[in-house]
Amino acid sequence: MPTPLVVSDVAKSFTMHLRDGIKLPVVAGVSFSIRAGECAVLGGPSGAGKSSILKMLYGNYAVDEGQIIVQHADGLIDLATASPRTVLAVRRQTIGYVSQFLRTVPRVSALDVVAEPLVERGEEREAAREKARALLAQLNLPEKLWALPPATFSGGEQQRVNIARGFITDHPVLLLDEPTASLDARNRDVAIALIAEKKAAGVALLGIFHDNDVREAVVDRIIDVTAFAAGKLAA
Amino acid sequence: MTDEPLLRVSALSKFYGSRVGCENVSFDLWPGEVLAVVGESGSGKTTLLNCLSTRLLPSSGTASYRMRDGQFRELYRMSEAERRFLMRTDWGFVHQNPADGLRMTVSAGANVGERLMAIGDRHYGKIRATAVDWLSRVEIDEDRIDDEPRAFSGGMRQRLQIARNLVTGPRLVFMDEPTGGLDVSVQARLLDLLRGLVTDLGLAAIVVTHDLAVARLLSQRMMVMKDGRVVESGLTDRVLDDPRAPYTQLLVSSILQV
Amino acid sequence: MTDIATYNFAYLDEQTKRMIRRAILKGIAIPGYQVPFASREMPMPYGWGTGGVQVTASIIGPDDVLKVIDQGADDTTNAVSIRAFFKKVANVAVTTETAKASIIQTRHRIPEHPLTAGQVLVYQVPIPEPLRFLEPRETETRKMHALEEYGLMHVKLYEDIARHGRIATTYAYPVKVEGRYVMDPSPTPKFDNPKMHRSPALQLFGAGREKRIYAVPPFTDVVSLDFEDHPFEVQTFDQPCALCAAESVYLDEVILDDHGGHMFVCSDTDHCEKRRDEGHRGHLAPQTMEPAQ
């Protein structure tokens, strides 16, 4: 099995300059890898650094130490040191991200929010919309909402738009940050099915799931984040 | 996607006597990329923008631009005629105050058409048709085409200024606080419009703003300036979500949460 | 107390005339380019042709024959006083006949009678900068001339068409000289623009208040700006001159009474008189020979 993502000895801390420069360690010695077609789940209590790890993998948080090697465009990239331009290319082509929250843009319809990642990857707008329609239908988002901007949607509706946006592409690596947090049972099942499809397609998934049912349904392996705890050392 | 940047800036400095305007700024900008330059008043971001757009000559440093023929040209070695030609064809400049970028006493249509006439278009009907098209793209009703911008609201003026700049299909647009001075709802509409145009046209842009929300919505990359120097730069969401420099942390923590 | 002050020939001192001649020569060398010059105070107010008078004073010689017209007429105040001025300070011969003049100073018209080689037409210019009304900054307009950035001139014509459906500028209609400089032909009617094109006469322009001189040498291209789909065209009149029946000339409207009575007559008085002397008669010729001023 190919291993598109390898994390080794990654450390992360926050230096709070506004509070006399105190250093808040988050994680240290983070090392794991994800194989194609598996869904790994980050486990551990709140505050253990699960979200921080996902954000480092997506280039959202800076990395203090270590390497995050991703297979990108026939080569290997270290995301910990990559230029912003490279990180953007990795996000476009290789690593997808489904967050808890949808960052909405005023006046862009739900359909276009979902289709946008495909358009950015060079797909025809109409073809992208067609796939977006299919996904939104699968996620039971009422068709009358598709043409509306999602800013005024309910939490569950926004979450479904968000999932559709995250799952529409064929990124080989997909990061999931509690994508099912505000879904009802029916749509949770759809999300589970979507994750299963991705696995079958050989996508490497790494997720945070607080919902036990979902976690049980998708997990291949649990990565215990408490093993990377750095808090006790510094401060 | 090309592998060469559109603009290469190296060790750019501008001094006003002993005072620092901006100092030792270097970056590359690629086609289609939007770079936000943030900082408070006096941080040097506007000086930097004016140097980059050749409205001001820097004290030292270089900036080279990849022309449409693929050749890099050193901006500050170009003749004034060449620079001005670049400015009205391949570049745009959106001023904070639309009155600085528009001709307030000629009609909206003529404001949009001026660049076309400047590069030699001499067919009234075609110029007007293009103006109509651009007004609709910036959501100004066609029946306002013969009105002077004096009769427009602030938001409309700003949209008109954008149309006036984009009509020649520039590859690089400079924006100085493009949403400054507008009501919040008007700002949102303008930002959305800008975002759409930038994506659809594949524009590269350098946006100076003190508004981090504007930076987040428009840009992929960000430079934070303080006292004329770049204190932090990187992906926009990285800088905003994980600010490293003390000044950036102060800026980010000062945002009002809604 | 015995004599009035004696003036140098043609009023201006010789150094001043040299300075102005240098500006004129430079203007001739760069057709359409506005040459700055040190305009002098003249014994008449700005707006009365001080620029034209200084140009005329600098080129006139004892053998010249001078004609002065104001809106085409030889007999209006401005024309009469300037003619009298040069008669007095240069003691030159004066005429009202276009063909006999070697120098014609004009305010706002070009004579109907074709000019010939050797003649000089001196225009009085109020505002020499054609870009002024759209771009008030002199630093900027000079740069635009230098870099040949003339898009703005078409903006003005665009505005005309947008507002009036056609190019409504009827006087001071901008021209491009010898394919390079855009020039304001002074507030002559655009009817006269074609006469400037390749004219055998030398055309000199003086703006006294604005301190600018420019020139169009003989046989120089002078092309009126326009759009492909709105080409330049001159005014046409749907009736001939009421006094001399001339067609294809520029006509002035003259009010005859307080009841709406009016007529159209040649603005070029010399041309009109010549034609009447030759026996041409318009439909109002007998009863209104001398319309009240």
Instruction: Provide the number of structural domains of chain A.
Output: 1
| Number of strand elements of chain A | 9
Shape, principal axes of CA atoms of chain A:
globular
Largest interface: B-C, 25 and 20 residues
In angstroms, what is the radius of gyration of chain A?
Answer: 18 Å
Q: Can you identify the CATH class of chain A?
A: Alpha Beta
**Helix proportion range of chain B:** 25-40%
Give the total of domains of chain B. 2
Q: Count the beta strands of chain B.
A: 10
CATH architecture of the largest domain in chain B, by name, is 3-Layer(aba) Sandwich
Chain-averaged pLDDT of chain A: 91
Beginning-to-end CA distance, first to last residue of chain A: 41 Å
Order of helices and strands of chain A: EEEHEEHEHHHEHEHE
Query: What is the fold named in CATH at topology level of chain A?
Result: Rossmann fold
Oligomer: heterotrimer
Strand order of the largest sheet of chain A: 6-7-8-3-9
Strand content of chain B: 15-25%
Number of helical regions of chain B: 10
Structural class of chain B: alpha/beta
Proportion of residues in β-strands of chain A: 25-35%
Keywords (chain C): 4Fe-4S, Iron, Iron-sulfur, Lyase, Metal-binding, S-adenosyl-L-methionine
Family (chain C): Belongs to the PhnJ family.
GO molecular function (chain C): 4 iron, 4 sulfur cluster binding; alpha-D-ribose 1-methylphosphonate 5-phosphate C-P-lyase activity; metal ion binding
Catalytic activity (chain C): alpha-D-ribose 1-methylphosphonate 5-phosphate + AH2 + S-adenosyl-L-methionine = alpha-D-ribose 1,2-cyclic phosphate 5-phosphate + methane + 5'-deoxyadenosine + L-methionine + A + H(+)
Question: What's the SSE blueprint?
Answer:
The complex is a heterotrimer of chains A (235), B (258) and C (293).
Chain A: E1 5-16, E2 22-34, E3 39-43, H1 50-57, E4 65-72, E5 75-78, H2 84-93, E6 95-98, H3 110-120, H4 125-138, H5 155-167, E7 173-177, H6 185-200, E8 204-208, H7 212-218, E9 221-224
Parallel strand pairs in A: 3-8, 3-9, 6-7, 7-8
Antiparallel strand pairs in A: 1-2, 1-4, 4-5
Helix pairs in contact in A: 3-4, 3-5
Chain B: E1 7-16, E2 19-29, E3 34-38, H1 45-52, E4 60-66, E5 72-74, H2 80-89, E6 91-94, H3 98-101, H4 108-118, H5 124-137, H6 154-166, E7 172-176, H7 184-201, E8 204-209, H8 212-218, E9 221-226, E10 229-235, H9 236-241, H10 246-253
Chain C: H1 14-29, E1 35-36, H2 50-59, E2 65-70, H3 77-90, E3 93-94, E4 103-107, E5 120-124, H4 138-146, H5 151-164, E6 175-177, E7 181-183, H6 193-196, E8 202-207, E9 212-216, E10 222-224, E11 251-255, E12 262-266, H7 269-277
Domain ABC transporter (chain B): 7-252
Family (chain B): Belongs to the ABC transporter superfamily.
Keywords (chain B): ATP-binding, Lyase, Nucleotide-binding
